[in-house]
Amino acid sequence: MFVLSIERIQDKDQWNNRLRTLPYAHVLQTYEWGEFKRITTGWQPQRLAFKRGDTVVAMASVGVRSVGPLKVMYIAKGPAMDYADAELVNEVLDNLQQMARREHAIWLKIDPDVVVATGVPGDENDSPDMTGNAFLQALRERGWRFSGDQVQFRNTITIDLSQDEDTLLAQMSGNTRRKVRIAGRKGVAVRDGTIADLHILYDLYRITGQRDGFIIRSLSYYEQAWRAFIEAGLAHALIAEVDGRAIAHVILFHFGRKCWYFYGASSNEERQRMPNYLLQWEAMRWAKSRGYAVYDMWGAPDVFDESDAMWGVYQFKRGFRGTVTRYIGAYDYSPSTMLYAGYTKLWPYALNLMKRRAELKFF
After folding, report:
1. With helix as H, strand as E and coil as C, how does the chain read?
2. Tens-place pLDDT, residues 231-263
3. Are both 135 and 275 inside the same structural domain?
């Protein structure tokens, strides 16, 4: 039995190249994401590689922020490791909990892409995942709590890109397949986006935010994200046009085995041409042609009925007939129950205040 050693990695290529080989590797664990959050929101990344002998077996990019003399810590969509290896899981959790205590953290949050079940809850295709449920049990036995602050989507829809294109098209609902074809017949063309299109991407995203009622950040925030990831080869934009005029786009982030549909936007005009349907199809084709095994549509309801705010978007995504995939969600470890309780009571008020300020700034 090897005792885990920890190496702190500062080199970008060394970090990403090692991360890419691990199970459950995620684009939000890349070097670039840590730098993006450091520059834009002040989270300071600590990049830890866990080793058995000379072999890296787990990695965690830990974002750290100070709250007075204390800290909060977040491993976005990580750690990356083999969650079926119970011994490894326990060793990594031991080390993370020790770090949280040593750094005087109010909480340490993790939300890896560990599947707890697939299918809609209660449906005939609802299928629990043994690895995910074993990991949940390990967390609960250690005192980790299901977080009231679920930063990322807990559920999503994934599409298996190992299938050929004819099969991917055939498995779509008839209505979705028809709309994909309508877009092509109505003159919608899809092209690759570049750095030169950043203002177009942002303008369409701003229009979408105003129409759909969600707050967006400044151009500089998205330009930092989109430019850095496109230049690093970790993001790709597709733009739908009619007669050379941009009417919709998607921005894909990709790393390891997966390609994620992170951003999408559309104009208020020409929506009857169904550009969003064609964009999703072209996104899947692009991801498949680059060797990605899974296309993640990035988000599905927490509650699978019309009461959920994502229900309309979910109906659109379900037409592509992927697999409803339910992850464990975010879990928090806190060395101090009292500090954690106090923070979680005050945090919603602070969050609402920040949202109000953002709304005033936006409008």
Report:
1. CCCCEEEECCCHHHHHHHHHCCCCCCHHHCHHHHHHHHHHHCCEEEEEEEEECCEEEEEEEEEEEEECCEEEEEECCCCEECCCCHHHHHHHHHHHHHHHHHCCEEEEEECCCCEEEECCCCCCCCEECHHHHHHHHHHHHCCCEECCCCCCCCEEEEEECCCCHHHHHHCCCHHHHHHHHHHHHCCEEEEECCHHHHHHHHHHHHHHHHHHCCCCCCHHHHHHHHHHHHHCCCEEEEEEEECCEEEEEEEEEEECCEEEEEEEEECCCCHHHCHHHHHHHHHHHHHHHCCCCEEECCCECCCCCCCCCCHHHHHHHHCCCCEEEEECCCEEECCCHHHHHHHHHHHHHHHHHHHHHHHHHHC
2. 999 999 999 999 999 999 999 999 999 999 999
3. no
Both 235 and 344 in a single domain? no
Whole-prediction pTM value? 0.92
Q: Same structural domain for residues 75 and 20?
A: yes
User: What is the phi/psi pair of residue 121, to 5°?
Assistant: -55, 130
Please check whether residues 180 and 64 belong to one and the same domain.
Answer: no
Same domain, 145 and 161: no
Query: 354 pLDDT band (50/70/90 cuts)?
Result: very low
φ, ψ dihedrals at 321, nearest 5°? 60, 45
119 and 22 within one domain:
yes
Say how many domains are in the chain: 2
pLDDT at 347: 64
Same domain? For 173 and 76 the reply is no
Write out the residue range of the structural domain in which residue 201 sits: 157-325
Say whether both 161 and 301 belong to one domain: yes
Could you tell me the CATH number of the domain that includes residue 42? 3.40.630.30
